[in-house]
Write a structure and sequence with these properties.
By secondary structure, the chain is mainly beta. It has one domain. Helices cover about 10% and strands about 45% of the residues. It is built from 1 helix and 11 strands, in the order αβββββββββββ. Strands 1, 2, 3, 4, 5, 6, 7, 8, 9, 10 and 11 form an 11-stranded antiparallel beta sheet that branches. Keywords: Signal.
Amino acid sequence: MGIAFIAAMALLLPVLAVPVFAEEICVDPNCGEYCCCITNETATGANSWIDGTGTRILPKGNWFMYNYYNGSRSTYPLQAGNPVGGQCLVGIFTVVSLGGNMYRIDYNMAQGIEMNGEVYNVSIIDEHLGISNTMNFTGAPGIDDNKDFGVPFYDADGAFYIFAHFGLALEWAWWL
């Protein structure tokens, strides 16, 4: 790499050092010859394994999606980012019937994904699980958070709506 490029990057590093959100990059100004970028993204349950789309909670506004469970399907894909930007399945969540009207929801998140031509390591920074017998989700993870992944819960009729939401840190690195 040319010295002019490295000097230009050194000027930009203090500006880019502030954490930012989806589709923007956070660069560590102390990286030396090795730099990493972190972008924050969200993932929610989708219905389609083909394009990552699903049933949106709100027709306008955020793109968060929900799923419906009635015993006929138990595994759902997790889509990172708005599916309008393309499919980016980062994992799955599964409804486990434990018998006696008891259920548990588990997930398996990929350790790495490809998104927008870059390969990222995936870290979960928060998780939210909402279960309801009526579709009354607001698309607000902190409000729609009434259950925990991996913890059994009771449902009388075995049919319920699911809002599975994850905050993700996507990290990639390069050498200068």
